Amino acid sequence: MPERRLGNEELAERLGCEASWILESSGIAERRIAGAGESVVEMGVAAGRAAGWESGAGKPGLILVSSGTGENRFPGPAAEIALGLGWPGVPAIDLPLASAGAVFGVALGSSLAAQFGDVLVIATEKMSSVTDPADRNTSILFGDGAAACVISRDGAGLEILDSALHSEGTWAGDIQLPLTGTLRMNGLSVIMQASRKLPAVISEVLTRNGIGAGEVGAFLMHQANQNLINRVAKAAGVPAERFYSNIRRYGNTSSASMLIAASEWFEQAPPAEGEVVCFAGFGAGLHWGAVVARRVAG
């Protein structure tokens, strides 16, 4: 995470609003903001290293990098991140899926590991570079950061049981980053779609595996808005506390948020053997999905 913290008091003074309104409408108290020298690539490399994967520590067979805020139209950041980690020649694929990229990367990685071996999934976003600082609807929400996870064919950790992924272009115009200009978002429409689609895809993947929502020890969701997280929890019929949340401290870091939350959750309250965990994400496109996993011994 970048070191700079942008709190609601500072933001409210700039926007001409109340700091309490920002907290009530989003659940966010502060967000991290990357400096000029902290690029999507640099944060992605740092996340890969934090996951224990860099030159001299073995290498993955494949790298999947989710980012909707890369500095160029092409190439995306994946190849540069692979180089920064010391792995020129390792295939590195870009997933430019804002907000939903991490859950898509984990789902794809679980299938591709059979062919490539270890798959490193990195999500890295610099939302401050694409958000209009004067736009109340977006500038209060977004922050910067990166995180990573490793998917292996075997070993200890969370065993991925199943996944469900969906896309629908009907509402593509409701959240988009054009070639020029800043992020555009119809917040009401996006929240409405997410409130419907996230509970549905969570139910889909759990039902298919004979798992009740009440049997899930933790839900690790894209940290879009605390009010949305609470709505999804209510729709799933489980206490909101079961949905891990760190959005208050980091804001919405787009596709990086799910893995940032998962990393902190795993350090703070590692699941017991056999505990079921559900990941979920929703974002621009529209794209949305869920992954169900279970803690195995080790």
What are the key terms here?
4-stranded mixed sheet; single chain; alpha/beta; 298 residues
Question: Can you describe this structure?
Answer:
It contains 10 helices and 12 strands. It has 298 residues and is an alpha/beta fold. Helix 3 packs across helix 4 (78-84) and helix 7 (187-208) packs parallel to helix 8 (226-236). The radius of gyration is 18 Å and the shape is globular. The protein starts with a strand and ends with a strand.
Strand segment tally: 12
The total of helices stands at 10
* Series of H and E elements: EHHEHEHEHEHEEEEHEHHHEE
Terminal Cα separation, in Å? 28 Å
Mean pLDDT: 95
Report on the biggest sheet.
4 strands, mixed
- The proportion of residues in beta strands is 15-25%
Instruction: Give the low-pLDDT segments.
Output: none
Structural class: alpha/beta
Q: Which strand order spans the largest sheet, edge to edge or round the barrel?
A: 4-3-5-6
CA-based gyration radius? 18 Å
Helix content: 25-40%
* Overall shape: globular
List the helices and strands and how they pair.
Elements lengths: L4 E3 H8 L3 H8 L3 E3 L7 H11 L11 E5 L11 H7 L7 E4 L5 H16 L2 E8 L9 H4 L4 E8 L5 E11 L7 E2 L7 E2 L1 H22 L7 E6 L4 H11 L10 H4 L6 H12 L7 E8 L3 E10 L2
Parallel strand pairs: 3-4, 3-5, 10-11
Antiparallel strand pairs: 1-2, 5-6, 7-12, 8-9, 11-12
Helix pairs in contact: 1-2, 3-4, 7-8
